[in-house]
Amino acid sequence: MSPLFHAAIAFGAIVLAGFAAFGVPALFADADRGLARLAGALVLLTGAVVHEFVARRLERRALVRELDGHRTQQSKVLGELARSRAELHQLHDALEAALRKRTSGAAREFEQVIREVGVLRRLVDEIAASPTPLAFQGPLASRGQASPKTNGQANGHEAGPANGHDGEARIEGPVAEDLGDEEILEAVREGIAADRVDLFLQPIVSLPQRRRRYFECYSRIRTAYGATLLPGRYLGIAERAGLISAIDNLLLLRCVQLVRKSQQRRFDVGFFIHISPRTFGDAKFLDEFVDFMLENRDLSRHLFFEFAEADARARDDGVAAALARLGRAGFRFSIDQVSGIDCDARALRAMHVGFVKIDAATALGGGAIANFADFKAALELAGIEVIVEKIESEPVLLELLDHHIDFGQGFLFGEPRLSRDT
């Protein structure tokens, strides 16, 4: 209420009181002056009471309006508080879910590491438990001669089926070339026990873009003094000494680690790993291998197991049944060193074969495959990809592109190199 309003009411009361006290006796001579003054006082008092009543009423209305405004504001604040509380609960639930996910993920990773460490420990224990005299399961190759299994040469050219036939890979540092078979075997044992089995990768590219789509995995072993043993020298010796399963185990472990890192980085690439038939002949390894792969089915899109054609034909029923379990779980296999057109595409598909590798010379008519186009069409009709390997020059590639090949492997696209991610 403004001061002018209060002044107007007070002025009105004073005028009425003055008129009653002084105006009435002046107008009416017979009026009692004492009674008139008392009437004026009553009028003034009544005006004061009315003024107070009106003022309080107006103040109460203003207070009610103010309270209504506060209630409205309080309702808004309570609504915002409720929304904030709901958002806080959502954030809390999201953080808890993320923490649980991270904790469970960390627990899974920890469990995987524990299992991998267990594999390494078992390998080391097996090696340590073997007799000190290094007894071979077959005749040793002579000093300087490559093992029959790999047809390798001491100069670093290797082209054998065990663990791939990767040719002349670039090796950083010295190469162990002047070791006898007993020394190589001892170096292999020490390398496995000390976890000095390295992983090398050679790209497999899509054509004609030459985009790296897959990698083939190879093993190398380093000696105690840092020199590298080439597969052409140690694979045959290690196989006859019964150590090839340990090498395959470590190579598989490296590949699994690499696949996991590729998945974390969202790299859409696959990895081929060749496992020796002698390794699959180990019933204990085969059972553990199948169980481990079935527990890690997410690896099936990125990890492919490779066999030579002759080894695939010679496998026994136990190995076939174990691999069939993996195939039904989504894993695919690769057949390499194909030498003829007598491949039954439907039978390969039934064996869950997803890839067939042939070398460039065979594809171009240098081998037993007379009609590469029909061969490739039959495999592709069965859903099997064809990879041509050992492509080492541009003229050979141009000739192969006339056959519309989709994937190629060879020194032209990259030699095997040490993986830095394992």
How do the helices and strands follow one another from N- to C-terminus?
HHHEEEHHEHHEHHEHEHHEHEE
* Strand elements, count: 10
* Major sheet details: 8 strands, mixed, barrel
CATH superfamily annotation of the largest domain: EAL domain
Walkthrough of the structure:
This protein is an alpha/beta fold and 422 residues long. It has two domains: 129 residues; 286 residues, Alpha-Beta Barrel (TIM Barrel), CATH 3.20.20. It has 13 helices and ten strands. Strands 1-2-4-5-6-7-8-9 form an eight-stranded mixed beta barrel, surrounded by four helices. The protein starts with a helix and ends with a strand. 31% of the residues are buried. About 9% of the residues have low confidence.
Secondary-structure blueprint:
Blueprint: H1 3-27, H2 33-129, H3 181-193, E1 197-206, E2 211-222, E3 228-229, H4 231-240, H5 244-264, E4 270-274, H6 277-280, H7 283-295, E5 303-308, H8 309-314, H9 317-328, E6 333-336, H10 345-350, E7 353-359, H11 360-366, H12 372-381, E8 385-389, H13 394-401, E9 407-409, E10 417-418
Parallel strand pairs: 2-4, 4-5, 5-6, 6-7, 7-8, 8-9
Antiparallel strand pairs: 1-2, 1-9, 1-10, 2-3
Helix pairs in contact: 1-2, 2-5, 3-4, 7-9
